[in-house]
Amino acid sequence: MDCGRAALSWDEQQLQTHLDAMAAAINERFADKSPLLVGIESGGVWVAQALNDRLPTALPLGSLNPAFYRDDFDTRGLKPTVTPSKLPFDVDGQHILLVDDVLMTGRTIRAAMNELFDFGRPASISLVVLFDIGHRQLPIRADICGETLALPPHQRVELRGPSPLIAEIRNLVVEDDTETRS
Q1: For the range 112-120, what are the long-range contacts, defined as Cβ-Cβ under 8 Å and sequence gap of 24 or more?
Q2: What sign does the dihedral 30-33-34-36 (CA atoms) show?
Q3: C-alpha angle 82/104/152, rounded to 5°?
């Protein structure tokens, strides 16, 4: 929708505008398919719930936590608490709307799809994201996106929620190694 935004944060109203447009796109493209919403922990679950609240008819909603399916497990480590995935429906033959807050490299989406296939074989998977910041390492793209950003490698979008949803661009902390070189 918007490309290259220079803002450092989005307040609740700005995000509501994105979510309204995304919900309208879901309704227009997928209403005849009776899709299921699956949010990726944790920001994707917040976005999926916010979208579901805006749809004319609420969709069945589940959540995935693909922590154990990541291919960078050895470098990222595991958070102290990992919530279990909850899919209160059968995914076989269903149209799945996989929802995340930020699409960057595509690795989280790949991990989520791997876990989703452990639950069954969906008819289709479409990706819905609030922000796409590029930096792809895998050939994954969003079917519905709230906003596309061109961020340098040292910046990320951080979503806080679940209510209200607020997003801001954060700089990654870069360790200064000048002391370790002496």
Answers
A1: 112/38, 112/40, 112/64, 112/66, 112/69, 114/66, 114/69, 115/64, 115/66, 115/68, 115/69, 115/85, 116/38, 116/64, 116/91, 119/85, 119/87, 119/91, 120/90, 120/91, 120/92, 120/94
A2: negative
A3: 125
Token duo for residue 38: 């699956």
Closest alpha carbon to 50 in 31, 73, 23: 23
* CA–CA gap between residue 168 and residue 92 (Å, rounded): 37
Sheet strand arrangement including 95-103: 61-64, 36-40, 95-103, 124-132, 144-148
Q: Among 101, 89, 96, which residue's Cα sits nearest to residue 156? A: 101
pTM for the structure as a whole: 0.88
pLDDT in single tens digits along all 182 residues of the chain? 443 444 589 999 999 999 999 999 999 999 899 999 999 998 999 999 999 999 999 999 999 999 888 776 556 556 666 789 999 999 999 999 999 999 999 999 999 999 999 999 999 999 999 999 989 999 999 999 999 999 998 899 999 999 999 999 999 875 554 444 44
Q: Which two tokens stand for residue 15?
A: 């995000």
